[in-house]
Structures are given as structure tokens and as C-alpha cells.
Amino acid sequence: QAQLEESGGGLVQPGGSLRLSCAASGISFYWYTLGWYRQAPGKQRELVATITNALGTNYAESVKGRFTISRDNANQKIFLQMDSLKPEDTAVYYCYVVQTNTWGQGTQVTVSS
């Protein structure tokens, strides 16, 4: 059974950085496209970024140039480096396997002074 576990969330000031991690188990990690979604209070869940097994990436317009998604196939992890954070980036961030519709439990990111 596929499982995803996120970590790395927290409270950061505007302009700061955080690095989220997602550890996967129970799947043939290499073959899948994984991604990060987020959900802010009172809003729908939205795509942040995805990365394919060929390292192709896709980003939401709102995070382009600030966020970077990457993956470590040997250790079955993906990462989201978030720089120049803004208050509107505040949300619960979820790790996601596209082909199996598997979600993690989420990690809270709060950007506030």
C-alpha cells in the first residue's frame, strides 16, 4: 500500500525559506509523477508543482521562480524548496502521486511576521 509522509513545514517570516520533504513507501517510486498541492483556509486545493520520472517539472504561475521541486529516486523522496515566501503561501501542503491518486497527510506552512 502506497504511503506518503511530508515534513519540513513550519512558521517563517515573509521573504524566508522552507524546504519540504516527502518520503514515499509501498510504490515503485521511479516510474511515477509526484507533486505538491496546497490548500489554504477556505480555498480549494491547488497544484503547486509536479515532477515526472524524466525530471520534467511543472509549476503554478504563482510560485514560478520562487519554488523548486526535485526528487531523489534512490531514497524515494521528493522535495519542495520554497524561497521568497509570501503570506499568501500559507496553506497545508500535500504530497501526491499522480498515477495512483495517493495523498499524504499534509504539513502546515505559515508565512507571517
Q: Could you give a short description of this structure?
A:
The chain is mainly β and 113 residues long.
Write the layout of secondary structure elements.
Layout: E1 3-7, E2 10-12, E3 18-25, E4 34-39, E5 46-51, E6 57-59, E7 67-72, E8 77-82, E9 91-97, E10 102-103, E11 107-111
Parallel strand pairs: 2-11
Antiparallel strand pairs: 1-3, 3-8, 4-5, 4-9, 5-6, 7-8, 9-10, 9-11
Written account of the structure:
With 113 residues, this protein is an all-beta fold. The chain is built from no helices and 11 strands.
User: What is the makeup of the main sheet?
Assistant: 7 strands, mixed
Secondary-structure element series: EEEEEEEEEEE
Briefly note the structural class of the backbone.
Answer: mainly beta
In total, the number of strands is 11
Supply the number of helical segments: 0
Poorly predicted residue ranges: none
Q: Multimeric state of these chains?
A: single chain
* DSSP strand content: over 45%
Helix amount, in percent?
A: under 10%
- Morphology: globular
Rg, Cα atoms, Å: 13 Å
> If you average the pLDDT, what whole number results?
96
Distance between the termini: 40 Å
Name the descriptors:
50% strand; four-stranded antiparallel β-sheet; mainly beta; 113 residues; 0% helix
